[in-house]
Amino acid sequence: MFPSHLLGVLLAIISALLYGSGDFSGGFATRRSNLFQVLALASLAGLAFLTFSAVVRGESITSWRNIVWGGLAGVSNTLGLASLYRGLAIGNAAFVAPTAAVIGAAVPVFFGAVLEGPPGIFQLVGFAAGMLGIWFVSKSPSETDNIGKQDLLMAALAGLGFGGFYVLFAQVETGSVFVPLVACKIVVFGLALAALLRRDSKLPSLGGNLVAVLAGVLDAGACVFYVLAKQFTRMDVAAVLSSLYPVSTILLARMLLKQTASRAQWTGVLLCLIAVALIAI
Q: What angle do CA 60, 64, 66 make, to 5 degrees?
């Protein structure tokens, strides 16, 4: 029988691959629409996908507690995305993006130690290697090193938002998958729609930006695999492995857009692979 921990590791890796593919698609989609239009369209597509999946599976509302945790996770995820977009727009992207990613991975590690006890030594070393790898992979070599208070604030808020999503969704009861995620996406879509209305921007049609639709479906799928991973292994293990998504984003950019990766980014990829091996032990 396949060990449950290794099954959780495998599911979390699939989650990371889907998250990275979704981020790549979302970044590509912003070439045709503004960020909040992409976020709204992607969350609407993800909501449709998750609702359909819940109906097919026959999953019902077993507990309003799960709905609340899913909704809170949606608020946290939206905070992370909005802060990241804001930081990338006005600040030092080479600092904001990797710092947010590392904080997003560190938050569930801290709460995992508090809620589930400290992990094993191999996993601790794997967490450290993974966070260092995320930093290197996410860091752009083309930006300056000027870091301001706004950069620190936006990076911290983005990281706390992403990490909070992992922690909050980990509180959902085992066996409940799609319904809490539907609640999460409803919140994300509502907040994105409110941001569009505030800016007097309209929501594009589902066929107006198919790449954004693809990004939403991929992100929803990544969330599903994270939730499943959490049901077979520790929260911190599932969260850190899911946070390795920048690796697949970089690889897709190299394969499809012919973008060159720096030596530091390849070092980060290697560190992330080492992290996976250590965490899986």
A: 80
- The span from the CA of 31 to the CA of 116, in Å, is 42
Backbone angles phi and psi of 85, in degrees to 5: -60, -40
Contact call for residues 144 and 87 (beta carbons, < 8 A): no
**CA–CA distances in Å: residue 213 to residues 28, 29, 69, 85:** 12, 9, 25, 19
Q: Could you state, in order of their start, the residue ranges of all structural domains in the chain?
A: 4-280
Dump pLDDT digits (tens) for 119-172. 889 888 999 998 888 888 876 665 555 666 777 888 889 889 989 999 998 888
User: Quick count: other Cβ atoms within 10 Å of Cβ 263?
Assistant: 9
